[in-house]
Write a structure and sequence with these properties.
The chain has 292 residues and is of the alpha/beta class. It has 2 domains: 6-166, NAD(P)-binding Rossmann-like Domain (Rossmann fold), CATH 3.40.50.720; 172-289, N-(1-d-carboxylethyl)-l-norvaline Dehydrogenase, domain 2, CATH 1.10.1040.10. The chain has 11 helices and 9 strands. The protein starts with 5 loop residues before the first strand and ends in a 15-residue tail after the last helix.
Length: 292
């Protein structure tokens, strides 16, 4: 293919590994790195070059894609990659970093003369594996022809946010979207816990709301994971949801608003993680309703 790119994927957890596979399937040359090597090794069988360090991973890259745990992890990894980064390289930053950290990442990009795109994604394991993510993107017009094939390989839709080059506008929209996802997940868990406490079959609740304005496919999907014991492998892990909930609360606080539901959801996720459910699907916050 004439528009083949060399794409460095830094961070190959649930989302990053799926994105790397789809990039390779689209015909791009993929160079992958992960802090835990066991999580990146399987990509060698998908045609990716497995690098031992971030610097090795970004050698010769047209585009660097970061999908790490949080903003500080992304910044630390890019600092390790810095000796091998070429000025003018495109950086698509897909980590959910929060409103404060995204500024630090953009500053790093300016310092190293990288073309920076704030590009978090909406979606979980299944759409990531299918290349059906929604990419939220903000960044300069110049350079989009290089980053667009990357977004097209990992997602079904790209939503450009804010004005040209507006740093952080995509991250801000991602936090708003995630606030709804996390609140809905926490509410689903409480509905199931209350039904159990009151000896109510949860299916009778679903029948009650079926087809009406209170019905929601997401509620049913997350509830089924709990009721059917399908919490592993996670679509979106409890520990990651807890981190995102804290970022949402902090962002609201900096904007002068108190987010009581997000704060309570963060506490539920953290409690479930402490009970041993950190690596299960975020629906496992259900267990936070019980003493274990």
């Amino acid at each position: 293919m004439t528009d083949q790119l060399t794409v460095s994927v830094l961070g190959t957890g649930i989302m990053g590994a799926a994105m790397a596979r789809n990039l390779a399937r689209a015909g791009h040359a993929v160079r992958a790195w992960n802090r835990t090597r066991a999580k990146v090794e399987p990509l060698a069988g998908e045609g990716a070059f497995v690098a031992g360090t971030p610097a090795e991973a970004v050698e010769g890259a047209d585009v660097v894609l970061t999908m790490l745990y949080d903003g500080p992890a992304a910044l630390d990894t890019m600092r390790q990659a810095a000796p091998a980064l070429r000025p003018g390289t495109v950086w698509a930053q897909s980590t959910t970093a929060g409103t404060e950290a995204i500024g630090d990442l953009a500053a790093f990009a300016r310092e190293h003369r990288l073309v920076f795109y704030d590009a978090p994604v909406l979606g979980t394991r299944q759409p990531a594996e299918a290349g059906q993510l929604t990419v939220l993107a903000a960044g300069p017009q110049e350079g989009r022809e290089r980053v667009t094939p990357v977004f097209e390989a990992v997602g079904a839709r790209t939503v450009w946010t804010g004005v040209d080059g507006a740093t952080g506008s995509a991250t801000r929209l991602k936090l708003v979207a995630n606030s709804w996802v996390i609140a809905a997940t926490a509410a689903a868990g409480e509905v199931l816990a209350l039904a159990q406490a009151l000896d109510v079959d949860p299916r009778s609740f679903f029948d009650l709301i079926a087809g009406g304005p209170l019905d929601m496919g997401y509620l049913r999907a997350k509830s089924d994971l709990v009721l059917e014991g399908r919490l592993s492998p996670p679509q979106f892990a409890v520990a990651t949801a807890a981190k995102d909930a804290r970022l949402i609360v902090e962002a609201g606080g900096r904007g002068g608003v108190r987010l009581d539901v997000a704060a309570a959801a963060a506490e539920r996720m953290e409690r479930a993680a402490a009970q041993g459910h950190a690596d299960e699907d975020m629906a496992a916050a259900y267990f936070a309703s019980f003493d274990e």
